[in-house]
Amino acid sequence: MLIIGVSGGTGCGKTTVVDQLVADLPKEAVSVLSQDFYYKDLGHMSREERSRVNFDHPDSIDFDLMLSQIKELQAGKGIDCPCYSFVEETRLAETLRIEPKAILIVEGILVFHPPALRDLFNLKLFIEADTDERLLRRMRRDLSERGHDLDKSIQRYREVVKPMYDAFVAPTRSCADFIVPNYDHKPANTRWLSRMLQSEIQQHGVS
Ligand SMILES: Nc1ncnc2c1ncn2[C@@H]1O[C@H](COP(=O)(O)OP(=O)(O)O)[C@@H](O)[C@H]1O
Ligand SMILES: O=c1ccn([C@@H]2O[C@H](COP(=O)(O)O)[C@@H](O)[C@H]2O)c(=O)[nH]1
């Protein structure tokens, strides 16, 4: 199994780039794991307490579970991974079945942070967009999809998102094999990678 890590700051376009790659590859050859699936279960907290959690600090992610599930996939076993609701700010009761395939893409702001996870990747991509563009994309998404209001979104960005990006995300840029630009209305070029992965699949099969 080839494991590809995709990271970069909030709003840089990780999901967009991963979707592009998935669309270019046979669906029986690729599965995707998002770091977002592994936000810790906060069901024991009130709404008010959950809204004060720092979701940009590595401690907010259950990396032990994430690592053990990736290792299960590597061993050829399917996993039931947790589902997370951004609107409820906690884990949902349902799980998502993911089967092992030839290529596993793992994406998230902090996936290059823990050395044990970083070392599992055969290829590391860091997606890059200007900071102001990332902020605008994030605000639009927070308001339209994640149930935040403008004040909450601005406050979180200032107090948590930006400082945590500087402390934990930006330093991992240098460990990436490729920096992939994804600027405003100039979609990232991922054709080279799709072609490389297609030839890998042809040589080694889909599982
Ligand atoms: N090159 C681009 N130009 C304009 N908007 C983009 C571009 N890439 C992504 N977006 C938009 O920005 C938002 C955040 O992108 P997304 O892929 O979810 O980022 P991430 O997963 O890194 O947080 C989405 O609404 C997406 O459609
Ligand atoms: O309940 C939550 C959990 C996380 N977030 C924010 O999500 C981003 C990471 O996701 P991206 O898709 O990479 O933007 C992180 O910056 C958290 O602040 C949230 O808003 N609510």
From TrEMBL:
The EC number(s) this enzyme carries: 2.7.1.48
SUPFAM superfamilies attached to this UniProt entry: P-loop containing nucleoside triphosphate hydrolases (SSF52540)
InterPro entries in the cross-refs: P-loop_NTPase, PRK/URK, Uridine_kinase-like
Presence of keyword Transcription regulation: no
An MF annotation (GO) of this entry: ATP binding
Major localisation: cytoplasm
CDD domains: UMPK
Pathway it works in: Pyrimidine metabolism; UMP biosynthesis via salvage pathway; UMP from uridine: step 1/1; Pyrimidine metabolism; CTP biosynthesis via salvage pathway; CTP from cytidine: step 1/3
Catalytic activities: uridine + ATP = UMP + ADP + H(+); cytidine + ATP = CMP + ADP + H(+)
Pfam families on file: PRK
Keywords: ATP-binding, Cytoplasm, Kinase, Nucleotide-binding, Transferase
Domain Phosphoribulokinase/uridine kinase: 3-183
Gene Ontology biological process terms, A to Z: CTP salvage; UMP salvage
GO cellular component term of the entry, any: cytoplasm
Cell compartment(s), UniProt: Cytoplasm
Keyword Glycoprotein included in the entry's annotation: no
Enzymatic class: transferase
Stored PANTHER family: URIDINE KINASE
Record-stated family: Belongs to the uridine kinase family.
Protein name in the entry: Uridine kinase
Species whose genome carries this gene: Aureicoccus marinus
